[in-house]
Design brief:
The complex is a heterodimer of chains A (470) and B (454).
Chain A lengths: L6 E6 L3 H12 L4 E5 L6 H6 L1 H19 L14 H25 L3 E11 L2 E6 L4 E11 L3 E3 L12 E2 L1 H6 L6 E5 L3 H12 L3 E5 L11 H8 L6 E3 L3 E7 L4 E6 L4 E6 L1 E4 L3 E3 L32 E3 L10 H15 L14 E3 L4 E6 L2 H6 L4 E7 L4 H5 L6 E7 L5 E8 L6 H10 L3 H5 L10 H11 L10
Parallel strand pairs in A: 1-2, 1-5, 2-3, 5-16, 7-14, 8-9, 8-14, 9-10
Antiparallel strand pairs in A: 3-4, 4-5, 6-15, 11-12, 12-13, 17-18, 18-21, 19-20, 20-21
Chain B lengths: L1 H12 L2 E8 L9 E7 L6 E2 L4 E6 L4 E5 L4 E6 L6 E3 L3 E10 L6 H18 L6 H27 L12 H9 L18 H11 L2 H6 L18 H16 L2 E9 L1 H16 L6 H15 L5 E4 L4 E4 L5 E3 L1 E3 L2 E3 L2 E2 L7 H16 L13 E5 L18 E5 L3 E7 L2 E15 L5 H16 L1 H6 L1
Parallel strand pairs in B: 12-16, 16-17
Antiparallel strand pairs in B: 1-8, 2-4, 2-7, 3-6, 4-5, 6-8, 9-19, 10-11, 12-15, 13-14, 17-19, 18-19
Helix pairs in contact in B: 1-3, 2-3, 9-10, 9-11
Classes of the chains: A alpha/beta (470), B alpha+beta (454).
């Protein structure tokens, strides 16, 4: 069946990129069609990613806090975890959000099609609906927002029973007694933390020398000093994985030795790959590069003048907020807004472990690689009244500035609630603010935000709560 | 004009052109605009790399633009007399055409409509249609250049060439206004660019500051008129003298010098100088005398710094000589004029004047002057009031010498009298200083030995 009327804008994929684009385009007066396999928009982020994992991490953090509270004179009985109830609560959070998105979609008169789309050529798409029926849609402009999916490892079969991917972990079917997380990236650390809190004995195997490769080592160290894991296998490759009747044998090859350990469940969390296969890109003159990403210009336009691409498939960090921003840019470009352009100076990233690790902008390592002269201030939270009053003293806040112009180039924080400090630094970077601008802005006391102000003061020569020599 | 119309038609039928482009290179330091004087090649020509394709004229010199690559010329994107900026695409060489399918004709149309609407707003409606076509074509080429640059941006997003500090909102506005932030002067701390900076940049670019001042009537009401583009020298002069006149409180001092003896001197030594390839002139002699005067009166060899309430005394004596050329006024500099002999000065002045007339002056030969001399004596007139060449503080004008009856020792004698006028900056130089300075020059002309005493 072919729909006769040409759609003004068709968006493939209803994740945070796709629905942000759809909503923006609709608000700008375009007729929008949004295609996604799920019943409501939301994508991996809402169904199987950011949101459910944050709900579970909140449970984990609350439990840890309750245990720590004994030191503050507040003692609880050891907590009991009702897995079914926790899962239900988490699912409730997700449901509320996706249904909300469904309502917002309807309210904007967006034509929502549940199905999968594929370019067939020219300006045509074939949509396979949930009922397996197909129909052909013609469009004037299209945005590809198909996101990413979990990466798999060769030789390792995810059976979703004893060998899990992140989706299996988030479904919270059971709490294994002994668990191995393959991959020390943010997904592995977050989900590993959840199961550690649920009283699994969690070990982590990481190919490189530490958690979160490419992340500021100072930040990682704060987590490494406080991690909830049973055992770490660093510089370790998973050589073999054998699924037994009641457990999994894993052969771990470290630098010098090879050992085989048994775990009840192995969680594979080795990253994500862009979903650019099976979209019929070749039929519309678009090709993905060797890593599967699609090249786009600042308006997020592909080499095909009528097709845009946003989010995880365009390269750069695979983050929901980056995708949403790109989605709005693409929608505005299609609506003819000349000012639309993707030119971020800072994309914030947060690892929601306990303690949290968060950063944005230029890192010290990148500055070095670019031969950029910088000054760095690191403000220890042990000098922050608020940090101590919430039982946190291992964290820090770091600011990186251009040593010539004193503009803020980057920043990071580690510790409880560190993520909430990053937006201010991101805004400062985007605005071209200087260290003086931050130090001259009154920050509320007592809050962790003062650590940003004091970092700026420190760079400029004298923070209130640090001695100058530090 | 036909070629630009062709260009336009081609633009409308094609989507993407993957071809080599020749752009206006960096002409000389500090110069970012030029006028196309001549197009040296035509469409279809086979050219080689480094072959001259255009000659452009700046406020300083004429330069040839070499081809950055070889190939067949597909399009010339400029016409003679058009102003171009560094980086503008002027010629497109043949490459692979990538004709896309139908393209969204409607989108393109609407874009064209937008542009028409825009140009209608900017121009008066009685502009001929051709003008508009040219304008559209120009805007289109700008658009295309943007696209290719954008692609380049994605390719190496991380290699930031020049740090530009501007908020996201300002960055978006810059895209809306087609302004490259790299070209905008930021008024904020560390050169941060504000929305206001963008607006000012835009106004400066469209010369609105001028048009506001000069609301011209429609002269064609009273008879036929013709419009001609000002060349870059004229434009620069207009800008500079306006700024000087608005900034400097001018005072004018006149004097007359009896140069009868000088004329004898010139006659006596002319052959010697001519043999060396120069010419002994009143300008040359006055350059020598002014150089000595500037040593005597350091304030005339100074600049005034109002921001810091200071005067800047220069310990070198560089003198500008105004040279009239058929393109306009140029003012090359004689460096260290006080260190040079009469003969050397005469040779240098002859040479630099020739260079000026042939548009061959380098940037260095026009920079660093402290005081100017303008001689209109060859043409005529009894006196004139030259405008000071900012940031200098004085200029000496020379008019035509005439024979006058002068009462000397009880009788009238026929003497050759040279009218001099001195314009000086009253912020730095007082009336008495001015009179003393010009008196010294008169004395040196009339009786050099007397002048040497003081």
């Amino acid at each position: 069946m072919t729909e006769t009327k040409t759609k003004e804008l068709v968006i493939i994929g209803g994740g945070p990129g796709g629905y942000a684009a759809a909503f923006r385009a609709a608000d700008l007066g375009l007729q929008v069609t949004l295609i996604d396999p799920e019943v409501n928009p939301g994508g991996v982020c809402l169904y199987r990613g950011c949101i459910p994992s944050k709900a579970l991490l909140h449970v984990a953090k609350t439990k840890e806090e309750a245990q720590k509270a004994a030191a503050w004179g507040l003692e609880f009985d050891p907590p009991k975890i009702d897995l079914v109830k926790t899962a239900k609560w988490k699912d409730g959070v997700v449901k509320k959000l996706i249904e909300g998105l469904g309502q917002l979609t309807k309210a904007r008169d967006i034509n929502y099609i549940q199905g999968k789309a594929k370019f067939t050529g020219g300006k045509e798409l074939e949509v396979t609906q949930k009922d397996k029926k197909t129909k052909t849609i013609t469009f004037k402009n299209a945005i590809i927002a198909t996101g990413s999916s979990v990466k798999t490892l060769p030789r390792i079969d995810v059976d979703h029973d004893k060998v899990w991917d992140s989706t299996d972990a988030l479904s919270l079917k059971k709490v294994p007694r002994k668990m191995l997380v393959i991959g020390g990236g943010y997904i592995g650390l977050e989900l590993g933390s959840v199961f550690a809190a649920l009283e699994s004995k969690v070990s982590v195997a990481e190919m490189t020398a530490g958690f979160l490769p490419n992340t500021d080592r100072d930040l990682v160290k704060v987590f490494e000093n406080n991690h909830p894991f049973e055992k770490l296998y660093l510089n370790t490759k998973v050589e073999k994985l054998k699924i037994n009747k009641s457990d999994v044998s894993v052969t771990l090859k470290g630098k010098d030795e090879e050992q085989t350990k048994k775990f009840d469940v192995v969680l594979v969390a080795v990253g994500r790959k862009p979903n650019t296969q099976n979209l019929g890109l070749g039929n519309v003159g678009i090709s993905s590069n060797e890593n599967g990403f699609i090249d786009v210009n600042p308006q997020r336009k592909t080499p095909n003048d009528h097709i845009y691409a946003i989010g995880d498939i365009t390269g750069g960090p695979m983050l929901a907020h980056k995708a949403s921003h790109e989605g709005r840019v693409a929608a505005e470009a299609i609506a003819g807004k000349k000012g639309a352009g993707y030119d971020p100076k800072a994309i914030p990233a947060i690892v929601f472990t306990n303690p949290e690790l968060a950063w944005c902008g230029l890192s010290e390592k990148e500055a070095k690689e670019k031969n950029k002269a910088i000054k760095v201030a690191k403000f220890p939270w042990s000098a922050s009244g608020r940090a101590l009053a919430i039982g946190e003293n291992s964290g820090f806040t770091k600011l990186i500035i251009d040593s010539k112009t004193e503009t803020i180039l980057g920043g990071s924080a580690a510790g409880k609630g560190a993520g909430s400090l990053i937006p201010e630094i991101a805004l400062a970077i985007e605005m071209g603010s200087t260290a003086s601008d931050i130090s001259l802005t009154i920050h509320p006391h007592p809050t962790l935000s003062e650590t940003i102000m004091e970092s700026a003061e420190h760079i400029l020569g004298g923070a209130t709560h640090l001695s100058k020599q530090l | 004009m036909v070629s630009t119309l062709k260009t336009l038609i081609r633009e409308l039928t094609k989507l993407t052109i993957m071809a080599k482009e020749i752009k206006i290179p960096e002409i000389s330091e500090g110069v970012d605009t030029a006028t196309v004087a001549e197009i040296l090649v035509s469409e279809g020509d086979q050219i080689e790399k480094d072959q001259a394709v255009l000659s452009v004229e700046t406020d300083k010199a004429t330069a040839e633009v070499p081809a950055s690559a070889g190939g067949t010329i597909k399009e010339t994107k400029v016409s003679e007399g058009q102003e171009v900026k560094v980086g503008d695409v002027v010629i497109i060489l043949d490459g692979e055409d990538n004709d896309d399918s139908e393209d969204s004709e409607d989108k393109k149309e609407s874009r064209d409509k937008n542009q028409e609407a825009q140009s209608d707003k900017e121009e008066d409606n009685d502009h001929p249609k051709k003008e508009k076509a040219k304008k559209d074509a120009k805007e289109k080429s700008a658009e295309k250049e943007d696209d290719t640059e954008n692609k380049k941006d994605t390719a190496n997003q991380d290699s930031s060439s020049k740090e530009v500090y501007a908020s996201p909102g300002v960055r978006r506005l810059a895209r809306e206004l087609d302004i490259k932030l790299e070209n905008v002067h930021g008024s904020g701390e560390s050169g941060r660019i504000t929305e206001n900076d963008l607006r000012e940049h835009q106004e400066g670019n469209s010369d609105q500051s001028f048009s506001k001042l000069e609301q011209l009537p429609d002269f064609s009401k009273w008879g036929a008129t013709e419009r001609k583009k000002l060349n870059s020298i004229k434009k620069a002069t207009a800008k500079n003298v306006t700024a000087s006149w608005q900034t400097i409180p001018h005072v004018f001092q006149f004097a007359e010098a009896d140069i009868s003896n000088i004329e004898d001197y010139i006659e006596k030594h002319q052959d010697e100088i001519k043999e060396a390839g120069g010419k002994l002139t009143v300008t040359g002699i006055l350059t020598r005398i002014v150089a000595l005067a500037l040593n005597q009166f350091p304030k005339f060899n100074a600049s005034i710094d109002m921001e810091n309430d200071e005067m800047i005394l220069k310990k070198y004596v560089n003198i500008n000589i105004a040279v009239a050329t058929d393109k306009g006024l140029l003012v090359p500099v004689i460096k260290d004029a006080d260190q040079k002999s009469m003969k050397d000065l005469s040779l240098e002045i002859s040479e630099i004047a020739k260079k000026a007339r042939e548009q061959e002056l380098s940037k260095e030969e026009m920079e660093g002057g402290n005081f100017s001399i303008s001689n209109l004596g060859g043409i005529g007139g009894t006196n004139f009031t030259p405008i000071i060449y900012h940031p200098q503080v004085a200029i000496l004008g020379i008019s035509q010498a005439t024979t006058k009856a002068v009462h000397i020792e009880g009788e009238f004698q026929a003497r050759s009298i040279l009218p001099l006028s001195l314009s000086y900056d009253h912020r730095l130089i007082d009336g008495a200083d001015g009179a003393e300075f010009i008196n010294w020059i008169v004395k040196a002309l009339e009786d050099p030995y007397e002048a040497l005493l003081h």
